[in-house]
Batch of 3 targets.
Target 1
Amino acid sequence: MKIHLTSVFVDDQEKALRFYTDLLGFVKKHDVPLGGTDRWLTVVSPEEPDGTELLLEPSGHPAVQPFRTALVRDGIPAASFAVDDVPAEFERLRTLGVHFTQEPREMGPVTTAVLDDTCGNLIQIVHSQ
């Protein structure tokens, strides 16, 4: 068994697509209209185009807003993405205007940083020593 798809709820799918592709470097995999303004919109790592997909899921369900608000308030990331070098990625993204809620921090064998995806989520980047 392996993970095929996971998701983050986003306030605005088009804005999220721009953030996740233009800034984070993912590539669009699927973009299927679902009726109205909602889409089945996924991105993948360019390094693994057939790997795990991230669904940029509309946040319209009533349970989403209180859940995301609580996560952000408590500083809990909605997702975690592996990078080769957290300090280098932190500097690259910060130069592009990405806001971080946690600067790079070494925690034993891992280094992490947490960014705001501008669509309602905190996202952690991580690398292992």
Target 2
Amino acid sequence: MSTQHVLLGLLARGPRHGYELKRAHDERLPRARPLAFGQVYATLARLQRDGLVAPAGQAREGGPDRTSYALTGEGRAALDRWLATVEPPMPYVASTLFAKVVVALMVADVERARAYLVAQRRAHTERLRELTAVKTAPAADLDEVIAADFAIAHLDADLRWLHTTLDRVADWHREVHS
């Protein structure tokens, strides 16, 4: 995820200070890792240095002074370029799940590798149930539904791969050890 572009997108709706940006990020991207305040302010400093945002005023809301930032014309152009750029489809072969399965097949006997795959499939299935409950909850907002749909699609793909791998585990284990 490009934190700087997400912050630019949040600023496209109007000036905000760091605390508001962090809160909006965490609300709009409910399944993403929450941003740390330090990351927000460091990113804002880089965006300001690069001329993509500019201070838009200060306010004191019962605490320290808070500087609001606004998107500049260059910032809007950078955001538009980023949004217009199609992300290349990425194979997820760098995932911990994939690495763990390959290592399990190399170092474990067939039954231990199979047991790991079954346990992982069970964990994925449980997470799918949790996300489906989030998605179908009466109070679910659009951000939560979209995030849950995205996660469900990826978990579903992982589950299909785990199932296929379970079917092939004995053959794969023989190939690795020959």
Target 3
Amino acid sequence: MFKEILGLPAHVLVVHAVVVLVPLLALLSAAYVALPRFRSRLDWAVALLAVAAPVSAFVAVQSGEELTDAFVARGMQGPVLEQIFAHSRYGDILFRWVLPLAVATLLLLVATSGHRRVPKLPSWVTPVLSVAVVALGVVSIVYVYLTGHSGAETVWGNTL
């Protein structure tokens, strides 16, 4: 399922979505925290990104595993395979940070929605969720960088 898109390895296409969506989620959710007066303008975009970013990260991890399996099946070994495994570990860690970022963001959206069906929450919930969203966003951006850099270094490191 995650192997190819139009004859190309799915991973090399999907990673671009991760590189865009995860930092966008982190930045827009931080803006949602920092700029309460703009929350009504940001809420739908943040909610959509909170769904799309972890989905794209999951698909990137799965398609990366398919690509790695294909390389191993073709007999790839040595230092480049170790680089691929390191890149894979970063991708796994990235997904493990993006998923809680998405959940915390969605919880923050609900907590600050003011909707009549949302029960009255303790006053500490919004600040705690806000700190969690910003912190998880920063860590997620760091892991987008580390994952992307390790992948690019593996593919392009000795090219030029």
